[in-house]
Structures are given as C-alpha cells and as structure tokens.
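Quick one, tokens below. Sequence please?
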C-alpha cells in the first residue's frame, strides 16, 4: 500500500492513531521526501477549506490580497491527509470528487487548470455509510476514497499493541522534551496494558508525557501517571466549597512538581 498512489480511508474512534497510521504509510513510501500535509476538515469553515485545499487568486474574495498556493499544489507528489472527512460540505464533496477522478483543479477565482499528483489519505471517526443513508455524504466519493480501507479498533481491544506503542511514544516524547526517561518497571507496564484508555492512543500519549515530565530520574513510576481507577476518586464523598477544591488542587500540583 505504501508504495502506491492508492487512496486510503482510515476509520476508527477519536484518538485511535489514524494520523500515526497515515504518517507511517507516507514515510514508508517512495515519496517519503515529499510533504505530508494535514488538514482537519471539521476545524475550518467551508469557504476557508476550499481555499486551503485549492488556493486562491488575488481578488477572489474580500481578503484575497495576494495569490496563494493550496495544499494540493504544495503537497506535490506527497500525501494530503484529510482528517474528519465526513464533515465536508456537499459543495466541497463534489469538487474533491472531481480532483480524485481527473487529478486536476482550479484555484478559487482562477481559470487555469492545475494538476496534482498527491495521494489522498482520508480519516473519520464517523459511520460514513450512515451519512450516505442520511444524504450527507456522496456515495461515489466514499468509494473513491476507500480504495484501501483500514479500520483501527479502539486501544482497549488491542491491548497486545500497547507495549510497542509505549516504546514508540517514549522515544517520541523524550525527543520532543529533551528528556532521557527510558525505563518502565514491569508493574507499571502491566498497569498501562490493563487500563481502559477511553481516549485511545491520544490519552496514552498524554499520560506518558505527564509521566516523563514528572519522573525524578530515568524511570517512570505509578505515581507519575494520571490514573483514574475505581479505587482513586476525583472528588471526596463529602461536599466541599470551590475554594477548598482549588486549595487542594494547588497543593497537589505543588507536591507533584517539586
């Protein structure tokens, strides 16, 4: 899959690591030196998303004071990762379908036809077949995107992957933070494997980041992890004032960051 230009659709719950999979595909391809560009389709308005994807010419709209390149142009022969693809409007669905079918596009307000060689990897945490039934997603676009389909189960259903994920995330987090925390006692690893991780890989990464920051030496301990188990209550049984909650929280933060 990595060494082709085949479009890929990655499906899975929020935080399951869809972008990680997309990056793995890109950086193991023959086009690894080309750009890997991420666009969150749910975080940008329809008008701005069209300009982000295709670029615009000067004067195309009120604030278009100069011409810009779109992500299809910038991506070159690389990968365009379209996250939350189920949130794009019917208008943009039509335009995206045309790009996939013809490999050409025009900038917003432009007349020149441009070519793209970028591979599209789309991702979603929604049930796209349900969106098709509701008339919110074009069926032809769906099938054009899912030439290869990858479904990522939630982390709680693939506990055997957690040790390898922890090793990868440890390397990544240490590099980003300039730290050298390398050791995980067997008991802590067992705990990591057995936690439910409702936020999936994203929650695991956040937990490990916190643990590495708070670690005193090169080993993370259970006390460094932000655990929320049945034995550990966030709130006490008795009701207390907001001021008392703030006081206790400040004391907790000071203790953890000594």
């Amino acid at each position: 899959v990595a060494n082709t230009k085949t479009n890929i659709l990655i499906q899975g719950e929020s935080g399951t690591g869809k972008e990680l999979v997309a990056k793995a595909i890109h950086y193991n391809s023959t086009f690894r030196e080309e750009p890997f560009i991420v666009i969150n389709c749910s975080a940008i308005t329809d008008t701005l998303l069209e300009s982000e994807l295709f670029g615009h010419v000067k004067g195309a709209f009120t604030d278009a004071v100069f011409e810009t390149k779109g992500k299809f142009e910038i991506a070159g022969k690389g990968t365009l990762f379209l996250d939350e693809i189920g949130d794009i409007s019917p208008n943009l669905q039509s335009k995206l379908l045309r790009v996939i079918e013809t490999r050409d596009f025009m900038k917003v307000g432009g007349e020149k036809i441009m070519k793209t060689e970028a591979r599209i990897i789309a991702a979603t945490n929604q049930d796209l077949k349900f969106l098709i039934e509701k008339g919110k997603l074009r069926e032809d676009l769906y099938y054009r995107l899912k030439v290869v389909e990858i479904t990522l189960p939630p982390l709680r259903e693939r506990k055997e992957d957690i040790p390898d994920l922890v090793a990868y995330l440890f390397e990544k987090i240490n590099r980003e933070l300039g730290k050298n925390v390398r050791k995980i006692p067997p008991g802590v690893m067992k705990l990591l494997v057995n936690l439910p991780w409702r936020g999936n890989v994203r929650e695991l990464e956040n937990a490990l980041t916190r643990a590495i920051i708070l670690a005193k030496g090169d080993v993370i301990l259970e006390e460094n992890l932000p655990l929320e188990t049945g034995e550990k209550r966030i709130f006490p049984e008795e009701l207390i004032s907001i001021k008392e909650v703030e006081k206790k929280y400040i004391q907790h933060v000071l203790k953890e960051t000594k």
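The domain at 156-256 is CATH 1.10.8.60 (Helicase, Ruva Protein; domain 3). DSSP finds ten helices and nine strands in the chain.
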